[in-house]
């Protein structure tokens, strides 16, 4: 009898009739489970009572509590559904039936089966959401008492909890339960990691304490001085599983995650939420992009709160959540809070309305979609609105943010795959790498040896990993290319002064890099190649150190300009004003931080820079220059049918392609075109020009160099 008396203390929010009804359910359950024991050796009835207690803490109604007490009787005892209907009414009989059905479901943790799991879950709760609430409480108590079970059972239940039950609780806004399920699942499944994070957390608590108290004091003082009544300021400690998940998924260090000080301010009214916000923004500067008003715009699960991140004392980031007491109840209890506020009308019940809409949508979706995979893709969009799920060819599931592309997927699989990807197949069909992925697609990445990331990918990738990998690669590439160029430029500058770079001793190098405040000789070459340092200035310093100034007047005979090979990559740029092509006389201008710009010698843009030795450098084309180079041709043509077609055909017949085409002046008889074509060299260009001149529609034609 002691068992029920203890439980009864939690029921003071119900009427005595309702409590009697619950007591009757207790007696029936106790009778039915008589003689049964749990793994721990405790009488079985302790479990349904514990489940009902969890629900009583959520202030659920009497039908839910009675169903919780009876939730295992159909499954594990001789009692029938008919019996329940007769003695407790249709509502409870159906709830117990629903929970029993859910219990019978064999959830499968394999990726393909997840779809079916969710479908079953959603079907069960679409009848009456309380079924899932009872089930979550049942699971919570089972997780709390997992220890006596054999290891393989423990692991299966914990896995299922992390994969299915915790996310469902989260979706229903039942934050407290979802967090506890996660912590318990984490502790069971990853024992070592759990202990490590816990220990690190314990150690960190000490040094955090003073700062937390300081901030807490500041906020309280601020709220008091602005006469905001009935407030509560609490610090929030991060949960171990969420810390671990951030470390795992975002590759962040423990210190970085913990280096955030989180507070919650609970006030009485909505107006005071905004006033409290004013107080904290007045206290500490807010970080611009980190402000969210979920009070005005509730989350899809109905969550309401104001979030802001501030620059706290000593530069520590301070996360603040501000909400009313009612919003706080919803935030903790989620959909379960619906029953708590059912009778009163303290505040509009945004959350439960939204959830009910969500559920009825699900039921409709379930009716209209045939396959369970299609259905689950839709459900997942709702459960995890900001993610897409795609499959690798082997069936592994990958979770990516919305608008992720094939390149994001490639990097999610492995950095090397991202770096070497050249194409992809989506659902077995070739598709561009920039394709935005949708739920349920299978994605296969095609790689090639020697392929490299394309800077243009940065325009469409959305994951941090892809972005940082591409940047990292480009940076490295730019560095190695700059070093090669810088070396060539320096050796040319030394030759000008009649000194071979071979005479550069290690000692001189060391002095020069020390003076420049750099660490390595390569750093110096890189900065020359990038145009941040003048090669002739470095050369002069080298000569001075070698005490070789006498020779500096004597110019060597073999002064050779730097050769342009066309393979330099991103540190050598071809000026878009004059479009130099191999065979053209060229010069180069060094632009700080951008590398070398190659111009046509006749380009009008370089007139001013021509006599500036700091930036101007002689260059020639290498004999074996490779690549396709843009060049502009100005054409005046007669206005007639098929003229453009004839011109483009002629260009493509000459094995060139058009990269741009602008139509200029135009009248009835003729018009002017500026065509940018790609050529290998001057010979190639001459061939194209000859071909075009033969066309009867072409009146005038010339290359544009300016
Ligand atoms: Mn149970």
Strand content: 15-25%
Number of helices: 27
Which stretches are low in confidence, meaning pLDDT under 50 for 5 or more residues running?
341-354, 365-381, 549-558
User: Care to count the β-strands?
Assistant: 20
Cα distance spanning the termini: 98 Å
Oligomer: single chain
Indicate the radius of gyration in whole angstroms. 36 Å
Report helical residue fraction.
Answer: 40-55%
Apparent shape:
elongated
**Structural class estimated from helices and strands:** alpha+beta
Q: Could you give a short account of the major beta sheet?
A: 6 strands, mixed
Spell out the blueprint of helices and strands.
Blueprint: H1 2-8, H2 16-32, H3 46-57, H4 62-69, H5 73-76, H6 81-88, H7 90-104, H8 111-127, H9 129-144, H10 151-171, H11 175-189, H12 191-225, E1 232-236, H13 240-250, H14 254-258, E2 261-267, H15 270-283, E3 285-286, E4 292-293, E5 306-311, E6 317-324, H16 325-333, H17 337-340, H18 350-368, H19 372-383, E7 387-391, E8 397-401, H20 406-413, H21 415-419, E9 421-426, E10 429-431, E11 443-447, H22 464-496, H23 506-516, H24 521-529, H25 535-545, E12 562-564, E13 572-574, E14 586-591, E15 595-600, E16 616-621, E17 629-638, H26 643-653, E18 658-666, E19 670-679, H27 682-694, E20 698-704
Parallel strand pairs: 2-6, 12-16, 13-15
Antiparallel strand pairs: 1-2, 3-5, 4-5, 5-6, 7-8, 9-10, 9-11, 14-15, 14-16, 17-19, 17-20, 18-19
Helix pairs in contact: 2-4, 3-4, 3-9, 4-7, 4-9, 6-7, 7-8, 7-9, 8-9, 8-18, 8-19, 9-10, 9-11, 10-11, 11-12, 12-13, 12-15, 18-19, 20-22, 22-24, 22-25, 23-25
Residues 47, 71-72, 138 line the site of manganese (II) ion.
């Amino acid at each position: 009898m002691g068992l029920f008396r203890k439980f009864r203390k939690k029921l003071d929010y119900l009427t005595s009739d309702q409590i009697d009804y619950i007591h009757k359910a207790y007696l029936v359950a106790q009778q039915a489970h008589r003689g049964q024991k749990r793994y721990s050796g405790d009488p079985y009835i302790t479990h349904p009572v514990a489940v009902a207690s969890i629900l009583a803490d959520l202030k659920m109604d009497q039908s839910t509590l009675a169903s919780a007490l009876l939730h295992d009787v159909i499954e594990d005892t001789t009692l029938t559904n008919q019996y329940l209907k007769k003695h407790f009414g249709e509502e409870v009989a159906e709830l117990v039936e629903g929970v029993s059905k859910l219990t019978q479901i064999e959830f499968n943790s394999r990726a393909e089966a997840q779809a079916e799991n969710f479908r079953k879950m959603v079907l069960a709760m679409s009848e009456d959401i309380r079924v899932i609430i009872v089930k979550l409480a049942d699971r919570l108590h089972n997780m709390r008492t997992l220890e006596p079970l054999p290891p393989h059972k423990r692991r299966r239940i914990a896995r299922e909890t992390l994969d299915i039950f915790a996310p469902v609780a989260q979706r229903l806004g039942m934050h407290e339960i979802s967090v506890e399920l996660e912590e318990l699942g984490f502790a069971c499944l990853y024992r070592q990691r759990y202990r490590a994070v816990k220990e690190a957390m314990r150690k960190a608590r000490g040094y955090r304490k003073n700062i937390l108290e300081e901030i807490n004091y500041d906020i309280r003082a601020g709220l008091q001085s602005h006469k905001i009544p009935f407030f509560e300021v609490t610090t929030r400690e991060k949960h171990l599983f969420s810390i671990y998940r951030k470390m795992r998924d975002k590759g962040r260090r423990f210190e970085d995650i913990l280096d955030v000080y989180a507070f919650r301010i609970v006030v009485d009214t909505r107006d005071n939420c905004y006033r409290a916000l004013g107080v904290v923004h007045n206290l500490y500067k807010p970080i611009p992009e980190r402000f969210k008003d979920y009070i005005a715009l509730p989350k899809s699960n109905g969550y309401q709160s104001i979030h802001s991140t501030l620059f706290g004392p000593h530069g520590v980031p301070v996360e603040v959540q501000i909400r009313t007491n009612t919003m706080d109840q919803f935030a903790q209890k989620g959909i379960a809070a619906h029953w708590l506020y059912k009778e009163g009308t303290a505040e509009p019940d945004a959350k439960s309305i939204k959830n009910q809409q969500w559920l009825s949508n699900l039921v409709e979706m379930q009716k209209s979609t045939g396959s369970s995979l299609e259905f689950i893709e839709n459900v997942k969009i709702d459960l995890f609105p900001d993610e897409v799920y795609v499959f690798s060819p082997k069936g592994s599931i990958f979770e990516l943010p919305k608008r992720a592309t094939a390149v994001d997927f490639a990097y999610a699989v492995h950095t090397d795959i991202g770096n070497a990807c050249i194409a992809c197949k989506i659902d077995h069909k070739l598709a561009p790498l920039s394709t935005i992925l949708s739920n349920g697609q299978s994605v296969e990445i095609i790689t090639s040896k020697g392929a490299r990331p394309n800077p243009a990918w940065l325009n469409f990738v959305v994951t941090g990993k892809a972005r940082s990998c591409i940047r990292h690669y480009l940076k490295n590439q730019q560095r190695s290319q700059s070093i090669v160029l810088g070396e060539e430029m320096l050796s040319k500058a030394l030759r000008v002064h009649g000194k071979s770079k071979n005479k550069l001793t290690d000692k001189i190098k060391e002095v020069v890099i020390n003076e420049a405040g750099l660490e390595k000789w390569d750093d110096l070459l890189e900065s020359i190649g990038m145009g941040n340092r003048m090669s002739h200035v470095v050369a002069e310093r080298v000569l001075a150190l070698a005490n070789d100034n006498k020779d500096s007047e004597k110019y060597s005979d073999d002064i050779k300009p730097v050769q342009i090979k066309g393979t330099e990559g991103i540190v050598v740029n071809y000026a878009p004003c004059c479009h130099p092509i191999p065979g053209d006389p060229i010069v180069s201008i060094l632009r700080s931080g951008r590398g070398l710009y190659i111009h046509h010698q006749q380009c009008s843009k370089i007139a001013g820079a021509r006599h500036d030795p700091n930036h101007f450098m002689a260059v020639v084309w290498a004999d074996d220059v490779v690549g396709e180079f843009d060049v502009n041709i100005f054409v005046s043509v007669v206005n007639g049918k098929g003229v453009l077609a004839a011109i483009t055909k002629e260009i493509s017949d000459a094995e060139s392609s058009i990269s741009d085409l602008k139509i200029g002046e135009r009248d009835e008889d003729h018009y002017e075109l500026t065509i940018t074509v790609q050529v290998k060299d001057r010979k190639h260009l001459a061939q194209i020009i000859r071909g075009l001149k033969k066309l009867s529609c072409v009146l005038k034609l010339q290359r544009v160099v300016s």
